[in-house]
# Entry
Amino acid sequence: MKPRTIVEKIWDSHVVAHPPGAPALLYVDLHLVHEVTSPQAFTMLRERGLKVRRPDLTIATMDHSTPTTSRDLPILDPIGRAQLEQMSKNCADFGIRLYDLKSDKQGIVHVMGPEQGLTQPGMTIVCGDSHTATHGAFGALAFGIGTSQVGHVFATQCLLQQPSKTYAVRVDGTLKPGVSAKDIILAVIAKIGIGGGTGCVFEYLGSTIRGLSMEERMTICNMSIEGGARAGLVAPDDTTYQYLHGREFAPKGAAWEAAVARWRQLPSDDGAEYAHELRIDASRLEPMVTFGTNPGMGIPISAAIPDPASVSDPLERSDLTKALKYMDLEPGKPLKGHPVNVVFVGSCTNSRISDLRAAASVIKGRKVNPKVRMLVVPGSQQVRQQAIAEGLDKIFREAGADFREAGCSMCLAMNGDQLEPGEYSVSTSNRNFEGRQGKGGRTFLASPLTAAASAVTGVVTDVRSLL
Amino acid sequence: MKFEKVISKTVVIPVENIDTDQIIPARYLKAISKDGLGEGLFRDWRYNADGTPKADFPLNNPEAAGAQILVAGDNFGCGSSREHAPWALTQNGFRAVISTSFADIFRGNALKNGLLPVIVPADFHAELLKNPGAVVEIDLASQTVKLAGGKSAEFPIDAFSKRCLLDGVDELGYMLQQEAAIAAYEAAHPAAVNTAA
# Structure
């Protein structure tokens, strides 16, 4: 048999039918649902008199429009509230398990799935959300879909799909102190550009990736879409199995042993072919930070802001000029030292317990700069409870940061947590698009360590100066 | 709705990597229906903070009124998977977007809403960028795009999407017809995760 990549293996085992001249009908093992991209799909089901085919393989949570203020407070935004109420009704009507605002399992869909053990190696996982690639950290083929496709999966548990090419992203070498998984993925995207992985699935390989924890792997896979790839994954290994073992929906007993034996067959075969390959030397990486209006506009913290005059392609040059104008930044100047108004630690990229621990390690014994508003938003209720159990909430609060309830929050500013026009944030989220964190807001993407360091100093900071 | 041909003047937004947050900002995503999403199209590029239109934005040019073809820079529709982006475009009368490339998720979403993503070679694209408002004919059957009195180019589309658009076929209808194959797959493969646990 021809050697296959893990992507090809998962694909092959999920093809329900592949008639000539048509895309494959691909079976979906797990469909995750949230309040923003599902309402119109439920409406379609009602209009056509259809049911959800596999409510048992469909799990919903509330995250995007979800307030991060106390759960005891009423939801002030009537439109957001109506969307959450509709979510409850839709899930009740169609028999879907929902982790709502009262649930101790509620959280950002891509934090909740893995922590409940729903996300497992070899699975196909979809969600109406482009950051579904996060689940690829477990060696699952996981990707974002549109609302029409959410409807397709509701009705048939399948998707019409064309196969993707596999793109090898090899990261080798030892990370220096202060450099983290977030910096690896920001460096990858800066290198290939935000369209570099279009049509591909990234497979992250190499000794550095092998040495990462599951949460760090999730951070990397999460931002695959920012490199243009719909999915990104890491082949499962003992780190994966240790993380999964004992979680609520992970297999138990003999079923666990059988599952692990099956999962051990997933890694790409020797000699498997990759459409593209990128190599990154992790030992040379510095903390990364973005300066512009897409996640590919990233630089090492010690570097200068690029000059549009040095770009030859006219459209590229005008995009860079436009980005620097929006960000009100001068080419050739360092970004380090630029004043910051808000620091956001959260989002499906960096809101897990290890991210909060990293931020707290910098904040501990220090104060948030009085000019900075710092929000720490745990990715889920379980992360929140764990943080409280470890006393991280106290560290943040005593330093002057706001420690909130779980949700997507200021990553996309749908829930009232947002930047004011003109404000600058250092954010651990995934997108620095114009207005992403609030109309007129300006985002510097960075790691939790860099974000915390910048909160303390009030300017974009190289965390290594505080370690 | 069947898609055969569109002949229209173009609106040109000469910007690369236009993300779906620009096409429709997240604050419009709290809707539970598709109604009124058209108002959000390019909202923050189109209007000033006080709600007045920005005179220099191409969609606000009076000559852009009625245009059904949008021409934009490379990697159009990157970022968020929101299908609200093609909904907002079609609610403003757009039937095709021409670029040198599209983000994967946007491309799929567009095709499901009768919005044709047309990928053209760089030289043809440059020609379109230079001639905003030019009349362009897009013929799906022959997969050609023609600039009135000028150049033409072929564009790629997978055979299935093409057939769905030409015949006005709804993908879900086609999928539901595969019931026997889906049931057979399920019979042979136990659920990957047992959520009754």
Summary: The CA atoms of residues 85 and 164 of chain B lie 20 Å apart.
